[in-house]
What we know:
Blueprint: H1 3-9, E1 18-23, E2 29-35, H2 38-43, H3 54-62, E3 65-70, H4 74-88, E4 103-107, E5 115-118, E6 127-132, H5 135-148, H6 160-164, H7 172-175, H8 189-203, H9 208-223, H10 227-242, E7 257-264, E8 268-277, E9 280-290, H11 297-311, E10 318-320, E11 333-335, H12 340-370, H13 373-384, E12 393-402, E13 405-415, E14 418-419, E15 425-428, H14 437-455, E16 462-466, H15 469-482, E17 489-494, E18 499-502, E19 505-509, H16 516-550, H17 557-567, H18 570-575, H19 578-585, H20 587-603
Parallel strand pairs: 7-10, 10-11, 12-16, 16-17
Antiparallel strand pairs: 1-2, 1-3, 4-5, 4-6, 7-8, 8-9, 12-13, 13-14, 13-15, 17-18, 18-19
Helix pairs in contact: 5-10, 9-10, 13-16, 14-15, 16-17, 19-20
Amino acid sequence: MTTEDYQKIAPTLPKQPGIYKFIDAEGTIIYVGKAKVLKNRLASYFGNKKHQAHKTRVMVRNADHFEYTIVETEADALLLENTLIKKFQPRYNVMLKDGKSYSYLCIKNERFPRVFITRRVIRDGSSYFGPYTSKSRLKIILELIKHLFPLRTCNYNLSEDNIQAGKFKVCLEYHIKNCMGPCEGLESAEVYHARIEQIKNILRGNFAAVKQHFKEEMQELAVNLEFEKAQQIKEKLTAFEDYQGKSTVVSTSIRDVDVFAIATDEKTAYVNYLKVVNGAVINTYTQEMTKNLDEDQDELLEYVIPELRQRFDSIAPEVVVPFEVQLPNQEVQITIPQRGDKRKLLDLSEKNVKYYLLQKQKEALNKIRKQTPAERILKTLQADLQMSELPMHLECFDNSNIQGSYPVASCVVFRNAKPAKRDYRHFKIKTVEGPNDFASMEEVVYRRYRRMLEEGDNLPQLIIIDGGKGQLSSAVNSLERLGILDRVTIIGIAKKLEEIFFPGDSIPLYINKKSESLKLIQQARNEAHRFAITFHRNQRSKDFAGTALTNIPGIGSKTAEKLLKHFKSVKKLRAAAAEEIQAVVGPAATQKIQAYFKAEEEKS
Length: 604
C-alpha cells in the first residue's frame, strides 16, 4: 500500500480508539494493531519512513489495504487486538506463546462467596467481572475490596450443617481482622451477602461514595504530613478511576452469537457483522450492497445474514439484530436486545456501520471535490444517458450538401470532454446520388468503423448523430452490419428541441438545458456541423477554381492544381506578376494565362 493510496482515505479516518488490520492482495490479514486514536496511529505508517523499522516498511509495502473497527475504549482495543492475533496469527505480529487468557475477578457461587482473581470462566452461577488488561491494577482493586470488606479466603465448604457441627476453627485471618469468622458461625450468611452486594456495586462502577471516602482520607493524611500513606491511597483511587468493569468486546455472560447492524443511503446498504465466540468478538466485517430497487432494511438483512454466516462458517445458535427478521433456518434464535451486554454489542455494531457509511459519503464527497471539470461533465453525461462506461471517447457525425451537390460528411472526435482535432475526419460521399441524408449517414458511419475495426483501433464509448430518428436508424443499420451495436452507445440529437433519441425508442429524452452534459453534446454537434460546412465550402471553391483555370486553352488539370496550391485562389493568381507565375509554371503557360485573363477583362 502506497502513501498515495493512504492520502486518498486519510480525511475519512476516525479519531477514536479501535483496532486496524493490514491485509494483503490475497485477503490474508498480515498485521493487527490497536490504537488510542486510529487516525493518528495509521498516519504513522505513511509519514516519515526513515524512522520506521525495516520490518514495518516491508509490512506496509506488502499490504494491499487496511480495515479498522471502532471500539469504546483503549482497553477494549487491547482486548480485541489480543483476540484477533490469537485467531488469525498474522505474519508480522508477535505471537502469544503462552496461550493465556484475560484476567477476571470472580465472586464464587457459594454460601459465603470468595472473591479472587482467575483466568478460567466456569459457568456454575458465579459472577465474573472484567476482563482486565492489567493484572497489577486488578490486584490493587482486590486488595482495596478486601481492605474495605473483610472476606474469607479459605476454600472450606461452609454449609450450615458443617458449621453447626463445629468442623472448622478460625484462622490467622480472623485474628488480624481480615475475616469475621463465618466458619464458626460468628457471621451470618445474610450479613455476609449484604457485603458481597456492595462489592458487586463497586465492580459495576457504582463507587462514588467509596471514592469520596478515599479522597477525604488522603487529604487527612496529607494534613498530618503522612505523604507516603497518602500516595498509597492515591494509587488505589487511580486504580478505581481507571477501572473498567465491563468490556464491550469480551463478556462472560454471552457465549456464541452473531451481531448484525445495517445503515443505508439512497443507492447502497452497509451491514456490519460481529462474530462472537465464547463471549469474545473474534471477527468484524462490513458488507457493502448496491440497492437495485427500494428494498426495506429488513429485506436486505434477511438476504445478507445467511450469506455472511456461511462465509464466516458461523454455527452460532443466536443472531442479534436491531429489528425483527425472518431467516430460513428456523432453529436460529433471533434476539432484539433492549439492554444488557447484547445491547452493548449491537450498539458497537451500529456505531461501526454508521461510521462506515459516513466514511463512504466523505470519500464520495472528496472525490467529487477533487474531480476535474472534465471528469464531472463525463460522469454527468454517463448518468444522463445511463451508460455502463464513462464516455472518455465520443464521436459525432454530420452531413452537408446543397441540393445534393458536393455531398460531404464530417466526424469530430472528443477525448476526455475536449476536441481532439488531429483525429477529425471528413468524407466525400461515394455511393449516394442526390440529396439523401439517411443513406449518406449510413455510408460514412459504416466506412468510419469498418476502417477502425480493420486497423484495430479502440471504438468510442459514445456515438452522436446530428439528426433525428431517421439519421439515427441509418447509423444503427451500419453498426448492426459491422456487429458492434452492442459495444457502443449511440444517440441522435434533433436540432429544434434538443431531443435525444435512442435506438428503438420513439420517446425522446430531454436533458436539462443548463446541464453540462447537454452542453457537451451540443458542442460536439456544433463542431461536427462547422467541420462539415468548412469542408463542403472548400470542395465547392476548389471545384470552381479548377473549372475556371482548366477553361484556359493549353492549361490542364495538373497545371491548374499547381497554380492553386501556390496562389491559393484565382483572385490572387490574377493579381500576380508575370515573373511570379513564370516561376511556377514557366513562360509559355504564363503567357496563355495572362492572355486569357486580359481577354476576360475586355469582355466585361
